[in-house]
Amino acid sequence: AAGETSTALREHGCRTVFYKVSRDPLDLYLDLGLALLKLGEEARVQLEAFDLNAPGKAKKLRQTKRNVEKAGFTFTVIPAASVSDHVHALRAISDEWLAKKKTREKAFSLGSFSEDYITNFPVAVARKHEEIVAFASVWAGADKHELTVDLMRYNSQAPTSIMEYLLISMMLWAKEQGYREFSLGMAPLAGFHSHALAPLWTRA
Questions:
Q1: Of 86, 88, 72, 170, nearest to 128 (Cα)?
Q2: Could you give the CA distance from residue 79 to residue 109 in angstroms, rounded to a whole number?
Q3: With 60 as the cut, is the pLDDT of residue 129 above it?
Q4: CA 74 to chain centre
Q5: CB neighbours (10 Å) of residue 29?
Q6: Which residues contact 203 (CB under 8 A, 6 or more apart)?
Q7: CA-wise closest residue to 166 among 183, 149, 180
Q8: Could you read off the pLDDT of 70-121 as tens digits, one per residue?
Q9: Which of 58, 61, 79, 142 is the most exposed place for a label (fewest CB within 10 A)?
Q10: What share of the chain is helix, strand, coil (3-state, %, to 5)?
Q11: Exposure of 17 by Cβ count < 10 A (0-12 exposed, 13-18 middle, 19+ buried)?
């Protein structure tokens, strides 16, 4: 069946691509005649061990959180059922972010802003004086195994460390809610080797 599918795709001039795949179905991809190309590695945080009071690197994270909150910013998660009440504020932030970055929606490895999309998920927000200045849409996995984010945007009222603050706060919130892992997404080109025996794709 896999061979027939591959032949049909070629006859229609199609090329199949699977992005961010797990290890489990690799045999199926190879049976379809596809090549495996590494683009980077996914960063995952084991939430049970995530502790801002731990010695070492946690000190910087603790300072970031404290400094942002000292400046008057707060963190909350808006339930999906209530996001529609804030969607105009979120759109204003998104539009300003896109204009400042001089870009437009990509909608490939990340979602794009639309009311139908953003209101389907909880949204983590940073506020100052009750005004939302930054947000991140929240993806929750089944059985509280994993939590991650999709859209992350902020306006000119937000400090430069606001995204780091949102991620730190989300990990703490996820841990309190009983989630086991937090995905920070894929780090492009992470885990690549440049030595002579490395694959050509990796060296390129």
A1: 72
A2: 24
A3: yes
A4: 21
A5: 15
A6: 194
A7: 149
A8: 999 999 999 999 999 999 999 999 999 999 988 776 765 567 788 999 999 9
A9: 142
A10: 40, 25, 40
A11: exposed
